[in-house]
Amino acid sequence: MKTRIGVYPGTFDPVTSGHVDIIRRASRLVDHLVVGVAQNIGKNPLLSLEERCAMLQAEVDEVLKRGQAGQTIITVRPFGSLLVHFAAELGAEVIFRGLRAVSDFEFEFQMAMMNATLTDKIETVFLMAGNGEHFVSSRFVKEIGMLGGDISRFVSPNVAKKLAAAFARVGNHEG
Known about the structure:
CATH architecture: 3-Layer(aba) Sandwich
Number of strands: 5
Oligomer: single chain
Order of helices and strands: EHEHEHEHEHH
Strand order of the largest sheet: 3-2-1-4-5
Number of helices: 6
CATH superfamily: HUPs
Distance between the termini: 54 Å
Shape: globular
CATH class: Alpha Beta
């Protein structure tokens, strides 16, 4: 029997409760889910690629420990190539993307169509944000955290601690 491989890509700067929700739900649809951490230097990430991968691995370990992925294997891998090239290299047949609101759809649709133009062997599957996750974005979490707001509703304690250290490192957070 063929192993169904899926990729859930993102910058994950930082990984949020919304990302973890998509990881849990996407893992039910494939045998092996690869969470691809994009280098994405153009977005000027607060956290290094290594920090983002380590945070994601800790979150994935929790999902697996709690049995929330069933029998699915979940791995975290960095990538710096075109997403479809990364997915093809893994033997993936599906790319998972999360949609929070209608405003996400236009960009995600364009990206999915461009990927489909580059290869017809990989499908894009959109998963709607779970209840209570529609407004959660990494950008908002960073902004709230940098200004001293409580981000505990949006990220795990481990991620909140790593963000606090990153804010202190860049000098954008008091308190």
